[in-house]
Design goal:
Layout: E1 4-7, E2 13-16, E3 23-24, H1 36-70, H2 84-89, H3 93-122, H4 129-137, H5 144-154, H6 163-175, E4 185-186, E5 192-195, E6 198-201, E7 211-216, E8 240-246, E9 270-275, E10 278-284, E11 290-293, E12 301-304, H7 324-349, H8 353-361, H9 366-394, H10 398-403, H11 415-423, H12 430-460
Parallel strand pairs: 7-8
Antiparallel strand pairs: 1-2, 2-3, 4-7, 5-6, 6-12, 8-11, 9-10, 9-12
Keywords: Cell membrane, Membrane, Transmembrane, Transmembrane helix, Transport
Protein name: ABC transporter permease subunit
Membrane topology: Multi-pass membrane protein
């Protein structure tokens, strides 16, 4: 059957026939040229994107390119030094900063994610779980500056001021006997010589006369409630007796080495009898300062152990050279564990419950369900949290700068802090600082690649 073209109105050809009767003929493309409408749309889109591209170039691309260029010059920017700045990054203080940064990247994200996972799983079925999650997440509302100040106070060495040492010393003193009179010492002419932290009589003692052991250097407030010292009597069965007292008379006067009226007893002092370096007997002074050793102490030297006079336990030096980095990492985890918990809890809510119930019906206990079902299903979320925190810790600066004291700041140094100190904090070497910035950028690139690949995989599903 034939068909022919007719005109249906001016200039509009119409295909007539069985396949397309009355259908207007589509105009043919003019050699692949875009229509004016398409060209105008492209220009409009470019016009809207241009301000963003200019800002992106000025605030991101230009600084990166200029920092890479500047890293090859000296502090003044006039002398080309090649890779010397990069070599300096991996030596001296720069090497310490690199090591500490790697410690941060490995420990902080993994521990924070682990705590977030634990919190999210354990609070899932608890009625007050929402309130608990809110409390854990609250530190995220605090700035790094405020958190640094808070933990600077927490880690104070003095237990009267630092919360960490207040708790630590309380636990320590619960299981360890404290010294009775810290800082006490004998008079120079009292016949006691110092051996380490202990004091030992120069002569041996016998049962024929009491052995007085006078001490000084005790604050009056420490003996204000003590009784009056008493002269010990001679032992009836060959015992060695004596008195330990505070040889100090209020207002002055009195006799050195003799018990004067009103002088205070020192109760609770441990006295040991030593022969040939071995302790043969021991006793503790009574409320009146007297003590009595069995007959085995005859002919021995008396020793006041160092435990009587040791300074009180002052806790742990949290911000010392060996613990400053772990302590600061702990403060970071306190802040960011809530962030990890919230993301993981969101992923946990999306896990199909029938999978968990099926695993339980197959005989799996809760630990097996968690390890073989929950964690594998949460793997994408855990990866997001870990990578995000790794990028975050690479630029950690505030906590280290504020918490670490000046004496140990070099031990806690990280790359971001080293960059600031070398470029703007008095170092004045922006060539070296630019090299650190480039190193930080190179460390971030692998994490960016991981994130981009993850996003592409999720998009292709």
């Amino acid at each position: 059957m034939s068909s022919h073209v007719t005109a249906d109105g001016p200039g509009t050809p119409v295909v007539d026939g069985p396949a397309g009767r009355g259908t207007p003929e589509q105009p043919r493309s003019g050699g692949g040229r875009k229509s004016p409408l398409a060209n105008s749309t492209t220009w409009i889109a470019g016009g809207f994107l241009l301000p963003a591209l200019l800002l992106l170039g000025a605030l991101l691309v230009y600084p990166i390119v200029y920092s890479a260029y500047r890293s090859f010059f000296d502090a003044s920017g006039s002398g080309f030094v090649g890779l010397d700045n990069y070599a300096e990054v991996f030596s001296g203080d720069g090497l310490t900063a690199v090591k500490n940064t790697l410690v941060w990247v490995i420990l902080a994200p993994s521990i924070a994610t682990a705590f977030g996972l634990i919190f999210a799983v354990l609070t899932e079925r608890v009625r007050w779980g929402t309130a608990f999650k809110m409390v854990i997440f609250m530190p995220m509302a605090i700035s790094m500056l405020a958190a640094g100040i808070i933990f600077g106070l927490v880690y104070q060495q003095d237990p009267e001021r630092g919360a960490a040492n207040a708790v630590w010393t309380t636990v320590h003193d619960t299981f360890t006997d404290a010294s009775v009179f810290p800082g006490a010492r004998p008079r120079p002419d009292a016949g006691l010589e110092k051996q380490g932290g202990a004091f030992t009589t120069e002569e041996t003692v016998g049962a024929d006369s009491p052995a007085g052991l006078p001490l000084v250097g005790i604050p009056p407030a420490d003996v204000s409630d003590a009784g009056t010292a008493k002269e010990a009597g001679k032992g009836s069965g060959g015992e060695v007796t004596g008195t330990v007292w505070n040889d100090f008379t209020k207002g002055g006067g009195g006799r050195d080495g003799a018990i004067d009226s009103g002088e205070k007893a020192l109760p609770g002092i441990k006295v040991e009898a030593v022969k040939d370096g071995k302790v043969v007997a021991s006793a503790t002074t009574a409320d009146d300062g007297t003590y009595s050793l069995p007959a085995e102490a005859e002919g021995a030297q008396l020793r006041l152990p160092a435990s009587n006079f040791a300074e009180p336990y002052n806790g742990v030096d949290w911000l010392g050279p060996s613990l400053v980095t772990p302590s600061i990492i702990a403060s970071y985890i306190w802040m960011w564990a809530g962030f990890a918990m919230v993301l993981i809890a969101a992923g946990l809510a999306g896990i199909p419950r029938e999978l968990l119930e099926a695993a339980r019906m197959d005989g799996a206990n809760e630990w097996q369900v968690f390890r073989k079902v929950t964690v594998p299903l949460l793997a994408p979320i855990l990866g997001v949290v870990v990578v995000t925190l790794m990028i975050n810790v690479l630029k950690i600066f505030d906590l280290v700068y504020i918490i670490a004291p000046s004496a140990t700041q070099s031990d806690a140094n990280v790359l971001a802090l080293e960059l600031y100190l070398s470029s703007f904090g008095g170092g004045g070497n922006q060539g070296y600082g630019s090299a650190i910035a480039v190193v930080l950028l190179l460390l971030v690139v692998p994490m960016m690649v991981v994130n981009i690949r993850r996003l592409r995989r999720e998009k292709s599903r």
